[in-house]
Write a structure and sequence with these properties.
It is a single chain. By secondary structure, this protein is α/β, with parallel strands linked by helices. It contains 8 helices and 5 strands; from the N terminus they run αβββααβαβαααα. It has one domain: 2-Layer Sandwich (Nucleotidyltransferase, domain 5). Helices cover 42% and strands 21% of the residues. β2 and β3 form a beta hairpin. It is globular, with a radius of gyration of 17 Å.
Length: 216
């Protein structure tokens, strides 16, 4: 972990990767065929003591791509009305372009080389993100193409809970069921959960070699 080529505490902490929490709301479970309707991302930062905290959140409503499938059951679950006149949805390519700009800036500012996706059932979010990148031909995707941090696994180890709402409550976080299944809310709650677990681990293992390395 303590590779001296990493020139910041955050970069040393995660081998040059910046954790960025992502949540998507979709029209189904098939990333190749079903619409991507919402996407949100929260960057993670580190304080002077080596503890993590959620930094900035960026989110967009997306227009379904041409020919996209939308399962009514998915809309019933997430409460999205793709035809709502005040939804202010934009095309996938524009949404990804706008989303990736601050993420790239955060990666650079943190001294990291790439972002790594953090998600609750991260394979789902990464699958839809990668599919949208491929569809739109977006260049310079800041995320690692397959590695993730999954808060389902982390919460299962830390609290014995795998459902986001239950894990958040077990971590002492507030949970508003009326806000759940919004990409922004779920992303920010997942970010708090991720930071809580990593910081809790840090209190159990108080040595922070990445802080020592970065100060030399």
């Amino acid at each position: 972990m303590n590779d001296i080529s990493y020139n910041s505490a955050m970069a040393q902490r995660f081998r040059g990767y910046l954790p960025v929490v992502v949540d998507v709301e979709t029209g189904g479970f098939d990333s190749a065929k079903d619409a991507l309707l919402e996407i949100a991302a929260t960057t993670i930062a580190m304080d002077q003591h080596g503890l993590l905290y959620p930094a900035e959140t960026h989110a967009y409503h997306l227009l379904p791509f041409e020919g996209a499938n939308i399962d009514p059951k998915a809309l019933e679950f997430n409460g999205i009305d793709p035809e709502h006149p005040f939804r202010d949805a934009i095309a996938e390519k524009e949404a990804l372009r706008l989303l990736f700009i601050p993420i790239r800036k955060a990666v650079k500012a943190s001294g990291c080389k790439r972002a790594i996706l953090v998600g609750h059932n991260a394979f789902f979010d990464l699958g839809f993100l990668n599919a949208a990148v491929e569809r739109t031909g977006i260049k310079r995707n800041p995320f690692h193409p397959f590695s993730t941090f999954d808060t389902v696994t982390l919460a299962g180890v830390a609290y014995g809970q795998t459902v986001l709402a239950k894990a958040a409550k077990a971590a002492g976080l507030d949970w508003d069921s009326s806000e759940a299944h919004s990409a922004i809310y779920d992303t920010e709650q997942t970010a708090k959960l991720f930071c809580n677990i990593i910081n809790k681990w840090q209190t159990l293992s108080p040595e922070r070699p990445w802080i020592k390395e970065s100060a030399t």
